[in-house]
């Protein structure tokens, strides 16, 4: 390497440039010699060199020859040859290397870049730069608006005049772009050994100003333009230097760039390091483009030389010139490759793993561009491995950048062969990113990359299955990204099956297409594609350990995995596949496939062998039928939604986006046809799949997408009535919670149409009659309060009936039905009549009272030895009773609200009855809460119902306020009355029903906080979260009681709380394939614990907002918010509602005092408050409950008639 003397003596005879002696390190540098003048002497005259002129002529000749064709020379080419020969005769070409002056000047003629080879780079306007403060090269690049190629040309001119000052301008430009106002002068440039010291001094001065923001990361509109201008200038500069030949003749110039800029790229100061890295990467990118052009020029010269040599009459001069041109381009390529290796080792190797993620992203983007631009150097395993290593970067945008870069590389089929080694090495990591990356965007991009790898046949079967399971992913972006991958996999399976059956042509010839296109019940090839689809989904679902978005737990049964709303993971997958599989879009074919009887014999003489094979291969299992029903659900919903919208082509033809009359009529006709067809299919599907709960629920879900107005418009009430009859049949014959939920929602949907309300209400009333008759029959004369007193058969029947009551009460008014005392049919014999009369006086109670009594079955009996199945059934019965009682009070309060708004008096007897039932329900709930321990599901549910029970009466207070405001607005000061009857109110102005609006007692509040603490701790333990230890003495006591309960008693799941370590041991030690199930179950329980916490917490928040639960100090609110930031996003959103309490009027001060009723009033005598101070008081409550249970002895008398009623009971519970 040449020594660098005082004035960058690039052409010193003692330091003549030679590429053979250059080394990366160990440079010998002469001590600087101070010159008389730092700049070029004004009277200096450039030395005229014939070699320069000759080379210029040669370059011009070469440029002309590059444009020549490989055939015979034309007339223009002959003229150019003659001119070139004349110039060569005058000035023969001298191959001697060029030498520059020793005073720091170079006498190179500046030749601007050819327009055909370089695109002009217009500098973007950077708003962050103040034009008044900018100066020098910085101002030319960022504020002048000049073309960056012109700026680079002017810099080369200044370099020819004074090299040191020009290089100093480049260094100062980088410093200024880093936000530093310090500068270097030509003395620093002339002494490269002082580079590190000078930069250290500048860095210390810069850091003393405590500057944290610099232009590359500054927030504003000009940031992107600033970075583009900086990179663009260096690219223009290097390419211009290369085109002038300065890059190859003056090697010390690029060395000085490397010394100063690469040293800054390793600075500890982030602005210096980032700015210098961006500049260095731009220089390497420009060198790649120079190398690419050099390779192309060399290849072109060699092709032209070979073509010329093959001619009959060889032009030896042309051949020699082309070979010389190729040789020169080859030498230039070696020089460029050398500089690329030096810059890569000095900058990229250290910065691609920089602590600043922005720098890492810039490096990866640049490397991707280098590989694409100059594959001769960078497309190899040595450089590709850096992309593979960054796949494990902790910064998500860095991983995303690598994936995007790999997508570009793999889409180039010419590079796929060279990427096989890389794929084998990093395929596992790529698959892992697609399945497990924390960022959904990265996962989606990785799936798209793997889709390209699948087409290139670079994936293993296990990898294909791992990616295919992402069709069940909870992120819509990931499901959308994996669709093409999944569909391609299905097509491969389908084509393989077709080949096994004899090929596509054989099947097309053998199968007879139905004459009517609407005949969807005949076997067709679309069924085979659907069979492949459901088989693959079934396989992935059975092996998939990931859970859907939401987990719902059905009390008394196993875990039920239900996606958001009531959509299953299969339905979500089908929604993603809808636009990519025509077979799913034709939902009529799906329905015909499901309704086809695969058990029928195919050997009837009319079916060909191919048809028999098709039917055999299309036969569905029960599990696959359920999956196909879910797909049918999704297809119908999307299809009917699309039927209500015009197609894209039709929409383009509309005027201003409006549909024409013909288009509207066509859309309406399509909707009506689809609704009619679906309405006829639902009964057929229920007839075939009604006995299977999962299948029945999917079919019932189809009713909710029907537009039932069509039946009214077409006068098809009989069709609707038949459909509702089928729904009622499913409701009465199933005890599955999901089936009853779907049937209830279907009836609710039908009741939403006013024109059809009469028909629907009649069907709902029939359900009420059948359900209440069954309830009366099953509960008549039986002990409903004692846990374990019913046989298993009766217990199942009562549980299912109460569940039906809860579902019906959620969609229709149940007050009159639940308050009506059942009547007993008149017996034929007089003796039975007399005995029945005695029994009725003791046992006939309103159904609502029986439901309240059933809640107490949730109180565990320590002395009773119940089987686990029986205990689970009792818990399920208590849970269903809780869900059935609350709607009664809600409907009752709704009636009272209407009466209050209309100023109609509420009967005293009605108020007293509701008050008594309120107290009975509260007593039962407190018993359940006090008897159960820890985060028990029934305990948490009882606490939630208790909060709702108090809150529901707050509606009456708002109704009264609205009524009074309306009266005041009308200017009426008289007492509210209706039809001449004054509304009942005492001397204090309070009405009788206002006694029911009361705050929650302090002792009940203590129970609620205990339940909440248990739920909070249970979720924290399962989720591995640490709770806040700061609490007052009462909260500590509640927390301690909750912890003791949890540790001493099993949870409601009948599973002791395991530590995280024990759970991990289970996963690791299990070798029978159950590790995934154990992990899935652990996740289920964690989600259920979070669900319970948010449910009870949300209900308590509502009670606080209503002024019912908190005290004047805000104890409950503070307790709820204590771990607001420690229990996840869901709990944080629940606590967000408490902000209303802080801003609301009087909310922070607790509930307003409610006036108590007069003691002498009989209608308020039953209203009482249960106070539990200790265990003895709880025993009293239990004793009172026991006395209530034994008020009538009709149960013993009814036991004597058990034989007479056995046939009636069996007929009720037989379903």
UniProtKB/TrEMBL annotation:
<dbReference type="GO" id="GO:0008278">
    <property type="term" value="C:cohesin complex"/>
</dbReference>
<dbReference type="Pfam" id="PF08514">
    <property type="entry name" value="STAG"/>
</dbReference>
<dbReference type="InterPro" id="IPR039662">
    <property type="entry name" value="Cohesin_Scc3/SA"/>
</dbReference>
<feature type="region of interest" description="Disordered">
    <location>
        <begin position="1146"/>
        <end position="1215"/>
    </location>
</feature>
<feature type="compositionally biased region" description="Low complexity">
    <location>
        <begin position="1150"/>
        <end position="1160"/>
    </location>
</feature>
<dbReference type="Pfam" id="PF21581">
    <property type="entry name" value="SCD"/>
</dbReference>
<dbReference type="GO" id="GO:0005634">
    <property type="term" value="C:nucleus"/>
</dbReference>
<dbReference type="InterPro" id="IPR016024">
    <property type="entry name" value="ARM-type_fold"/>
</dbReference>
<dbReference type="GO" id="GO:0000785">
    <property type="term" value="C:chromatin"/>
</dbReference>
<dbReference type="InterPro" id="IPR011989">
    <property type="entry name" value="ARM-like"/>
</dbReference>
<feature type="compositionally biased region" description="Acidic residues">
    <location>
        <begin position="1172"/>
        <end position="1209"/>
    </location>
</feature>
<feature type="compositionally biased region" description="Acidic residues">
    <location>
        <begin position="52"/>
        <end position="77"/>
    </location>
</feature>
<feature type="region of interest" description="Disordered">
    <location>
        <begin position="964"/>
        <end position="987"/>
    </location>
</feature>
<dbReference type="InterPro" id="IPR020839">
    <property type="entry name" value="SCD"/>
</dbReference>
<protein>
    <recommendedName>
        <fullName>SCD domain-containing protein</fullName>
    </recommendedName>
</protein>
<dbReference type="Pfam" id="PF24571">
    <property type="entry name" value="HEAT_SCC3-SA"/>
</dbReference>
<dbReference type="GO" id="GO:0007062">
    <property type="term" value="P:sister chromatid cohesion"/>
</dbReference>
<feature type="domain" description="SCD">
    <location>
        <begin position="348"/>
        <end position="433"/>
    </location>
</feature>
<dbReference type="InterPro" id="IPR013721">
    <property type="entry name" value="STAG"/>
</dbReference>
<feature type="region of interest" description="Disordered">
    <location>
        <begin position="1"/>
        <end position="106"/>
    </location>
</feature>
<feature type="compositionally biased region" description="Basic residues">
    <location>
        <begin position="81"/>
        <end position="101"/>
    </location>
</feature>
<dbReference type="GO" id="GO:0003682">
    <property type="term" value="F:chromatin binding"/>
</dbReference>
<feature type="compositionally biased region" description="Polar residues">
    <location>
        <begin position="1"/>
        <end position="10"/>
    </location>
</feature>
<feature type="compositionally biased region" description="Acidic residues">
    <location>
        <begin position="1044"/>
        <end position="1059"/>
    </location>
</feature>
<dbReference type="InterPro" id="IPR056396">
    <property type="entry name" value="HEAT_SCC3-SA"/>
</dbReference>
<feature type="region of interest" description="Disordered">
    <location>
        <begin position="1029"/>
        <end position="1059"/>
    </location>
</feature>
<feature type="compositionally biased region" description="Basic and acidic residues">
    <location>
        <begin position="1029"/>
        <end position="1043"/>
    </location>
</feature>
